[in-house]
Amino acid sequence: MQPSVESLVRLLESYRGRDKVIRTVCYGSQLVGGVLSQKVETDVSSHRLGKRLLLFSAQLSHCRTVLRLFDDLSMLAYSHSYGLGGGEEDAGVRLVSLLTNVADQLYYPCEHIAWAADAELIKGKSDKWWLLSTVLWGTSLLLGILRSLRVLLLLKKKLKRYERGGGGNSRSQLRRQMQREVLSILSSMADLCNAIHWMPPGFLWAGRFPNWLVGLMGTISSLIGLIQVNAGDSDETDSP
């Protein structure tokens, strides 16, 4: 078996890896489907294929929502292990990380209630719960960007000290850490664009993205997530 196939199999055998693959296929299908569905009605075959890809993408998104019903305990375990962030050297990073954990922990039950309302398992409208979960997700993304920017600033200061005092191995390690933070910022910014799109109309560019642009932003974020998993950086929480 080819090494690339073996890597894919190992990725699919883990829950986090499988979720990231499903997420990538979901947004990739929305990207291609959005482009094809915009073709003129005379190109019937492409238009029909685009619609089917959009339906496929919606089903994969629903699949991920159902799978996240079981993520509360893992998120709680992560928050408990992080505690008050005593292991963080910087107070700013600690504060932002704590707020991010709170937003992530609250996100899951809000999404579960919205899903249950849509499935008619409970009475009530799901709109306000979907909105609240989107606000919490966007808040988490924004906090994640702020955290990565702060970490980048701290790493740059360390890098300058090492450049004056030598230490080639330490410099290369710091540069790799900085690259990971830059990728995290790009991923979170792409997801934040979509989170704002799913807010109520009138808020910034809410509701203005076509399907292909939502798919593009999600695909960028998902591919970065796959890169981070392959690099061993898979400790991040799931994103819708």
Automatic annotation (TrEMBL):
Keyword Transmembrane helix (UniProt): yes
Keywords for the protein's UniProt record, in alphabetical order: Membrane, Peroxisome, Transmembrane, Transmembrane helix
TM region positions: 129-155, 212-231
UniProt entry tagged with the keyword Endoplasmic reticulum: no
Biological process, per Gene Ontology: peroxisome fission
GO cellular component, one term: peroxisomal membrane
Main subcellular location of this protein, as a coarse class: membrane
Cellular localization per UniProt: Peroxisome membrane
Protein name: Peroxisomal biogenesis factor 11 gamma
